[in-house]
């Protein structure tokens, strides 16, 4: 009998790192420096070296990281932040926290990332609504960087800040630049299912600005000044936990190896499925970390395909079934242009297959064979 197939196999990674992680966590516990202990600084320094950036500041989670970046920019009510609608809610949620307005833009059909061609339309939408455009949040969805040459040019010309929401794409590269070297800020999430994940919640902000880094370190610690009981700004409580930092140090040590393993899994999927279904595409000179491996299937048959794969013990997931502009909490916010048709279409078609560095070839062959059998048996499923 075939063992259960994990959508993301965290147990396999834990087994590989068990001794090192347990030793690191125990050392953090025994040090009794549970808040901003030395492991936090060590992790921040090692992650900065990994990115090739000047500063990494750990936070409690990736959502807080976005919020703190916006706070660092002084975002307030009346400001507009341009962001894609086809993403997890955290991207726009942090904007709404501050009373600012997210302006939703459509995505590129192939990459699922923000379509740079929509940015001028979003800018006009913001100005027509009497809002002050302040920043663009680009999301590195499913592990692939956004099209940053075009996005950076737009932000530079319009004097807008650029925040790279790399919760899913941290560790990816865009034309020789690793995430963390792009934009004014890069935010990371270390939620356990992310390519670089901890054993709870965690996040980070990457920046090359000394001035911004100083403000961020203050904001994550209640807006403190030189002393923790001196408060120079309104901040929040969002510090990376010492034990999680200790775990992340060990995970970072094997991260490059896992990125390569994820690419090997993606290559096998591509080879086995490209002729029967629309497989993911990565932009030239870019490298994805493959947080998800996402197909596009006919929306009339997606549920049937998922059910058939489930009957064979193969888990699947839909990221995301509904764009943010169609969700109750975000319907009141503006969209650029006459709706977001590409986002709406993608939401009806996307289907993600199991993806993690420890997906062995035999199991993956079984998944590929099962998908092919389902698709070839129902030609209308394939896009």
From TrEMBL:
GO biological process, one term: polysaccharide biosynthetic process
One Pfam family it belongs to: DegT_DnrJ_EryC1
Enzyme active site: 194 (proton acceptor)
Keyword Magnesium (UniProt): no
Gene3D superfamilies: Aspartate Aminotransferase, domain 1, Type I PLP-dependent aspartate aminotransferase-like (Major domain)
Modified residues (N6-(pyridoxal phosphate)lysine): 194
Origin: domain of life: Bacteria
GO molecular function, one term: pyridoxal phosphate binding
InterPro entries registered for this protein in UniProt: DegT/StrS_aminotransferase, PyrdxlP-dep_Trfase, PyrdxlP-dep_Trfase_major, PyrdxlP-dep_Trfase_small
Keywords of the record: Aminotransferase, Pyridoxal phosphate, Transferase
Keyword Transferase: yes
Protein family: Belongs to the DegT/DnrJ/EryC1 family.
Protein name: DegT/DnrJ/EryC1/StrS aminotransferase family protein
Species per Swiss-Prot/TrEMBL record: Plantimonas leprariae
Organism lineage: Bacteria, Pseudomonadati, Pseudomonadota, Alphaproteobacteria, Hyphomicrobiales
């Amino acid at each position: 009998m075939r063992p259960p197939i994990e959508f993301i196999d965290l147990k396999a990674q834990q087994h590989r790192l068990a001794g090192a992680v347990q030793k690191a966590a125990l050392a953090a516990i025994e040090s009794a420096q549970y808040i901003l202990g030395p492991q936090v600084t060590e992790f921040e320094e090692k992650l900065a070296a990994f990115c090739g950036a000047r500063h990494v500041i750990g936070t409690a989670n990736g959502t807080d990281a976005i919020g703190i970046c916006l706070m660092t920019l002084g975002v307030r009510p009346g400001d507009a932040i341009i962001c894609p609608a086809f993403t997890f809610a955290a991207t726009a949620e942090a904007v709404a926290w501050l009373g600012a307005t997210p302006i939703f833009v459509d995505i590129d059909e192939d990459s699922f990332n923000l379509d740079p061609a929509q940015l001028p339309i979003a800018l006009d939408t913001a100005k027509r609504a009497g809002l002050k455009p302040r920043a663009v949040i680009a999301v590195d969805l499913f592990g692939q960087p956004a099209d940053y040459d075009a996005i950076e040019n737009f932000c530079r010309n319009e004097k807008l800040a650029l925040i790279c929401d790399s919760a899913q794409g941290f560790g990816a590269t865009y034309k020789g630049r690793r995430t963390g070297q792009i934009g004014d800020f890069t935010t990371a999430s270390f939620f356990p299912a992310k390519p670089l994940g901890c054993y709870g919640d965690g996040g980070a902000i990457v920046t090359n600005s000394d001035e911004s880094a100083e403000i961020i370190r203050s904001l994550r610690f209640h807006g403190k000044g030189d002393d923790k009981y001196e408060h120079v700004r309104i901040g929040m409580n969002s510090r990376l936990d010492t034990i999680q930092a200790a775990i992340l140090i060990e995970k970072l040590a094997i991260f490059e190896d896992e990125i390569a393993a994820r690419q090997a899994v993606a290559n096998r999927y591509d080879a086995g499925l490209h002729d029967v279904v629309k497989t993911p595409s990565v932009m030239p000179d870019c490298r994805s970390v493959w947080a998800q491996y996402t197909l596009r299937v006919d929306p009339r048959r997606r549920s049937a395909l998922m059910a058939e794969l489930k009957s064979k013990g193969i888990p699947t997931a839909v990221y995301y079934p509904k764009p943010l502009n169609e969700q109750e909490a975000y319907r009141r916010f503006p969209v650029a242009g006459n709706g977001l048709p590409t986002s709406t279409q993608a939401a009806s078609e996307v289907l993600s297959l199991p993806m993690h560095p420890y997906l062995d070839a035999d199991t993956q062959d079984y998944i590929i064979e099962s998908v092919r059998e389902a698709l070839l048996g129902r030609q209308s499923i394939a896009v």
